[in-house]
Predict the 3D structure of the following.
Amino acid sequence: GEVSKEIEISIIDDDMSEPDVTFCVVLSDLQGVGVVLVQDMVPVTIVDDDESGILMFELPTKEASVEDAFVDLPVIRRNGMDGMVTVDYATQDGTGPAAVAGQHYKETKGTLVLESGEDRAKIRIPLLAAGGNKMLVFKIVLSNPLGGAVLGKRAMCRIILVPGRNAPSKIKSNTKRSRRRSKCLKGEEEEEFSLWKAYKEQYQEAIMPELQDGANNVWFDMLLHYTSITWKLICASIPPSEWAGSYPTFLGSNIILVGIIFLTKEVANLLGCELTLSPVMTGLTLVALGTSL
């Protein structure tokens, strides 16, 4: 009365990352009266469960100074660190204000190796001090991962070469005025001030996202940047502090501040009217809170 039977096959486990493998189980030497062998072979696939990880750049954008000797780009390994993996990398010239290999940076390509258990490595690109006063862009691309690893979404990183900075920072304390002051203290010739060039730098700083090395949540920082980009562009319209003894800066800042307070008051009054709040309560709650923010 027995209608089925199981065959047990032992699988030898290892810690190596390798492709899935297949073998076959074959039935033979059929015995019995009136028994017919319908399927004498069945394939069995062993799925590899040792993940080698996902390789990608830590940041989608890296900022460096044209005065730096090199720039380091971290490559991270996520979702598994089993086995040794390799990935190729190569630099490429950018578009628009492009940095050119051999003129602004040294063309770099090779193979990055991560040993088993290693979750990060870095690629170093030598820079050539020939950027001038322009912001330049080039990129580096990952390709051909081996050892079971795959590429993540950030397989390309943009490197932005910024003029006149010794060290990129999220807090822009190294302004043109401080640089000119330091030149004067060192006895160097002061650079001639250009209003339109200063405005151009302000708008570039407002538009370009500012990312720090080692940031854990890059996409959240990008979201905050593009959410507040309207206010950044409005503030970038304030005249530079180096122009006409900073008086236009003071006047422009106050005009924008008064405009923001007026806009906040009008929106708060409309909201208070909809909520049937008295003018005193609207001022103590909505207007005060809005102007504080």
About this structure: The radius of gyration is 31 Å. Residues 99 and 136 are 5 Å apart (CA to CA).
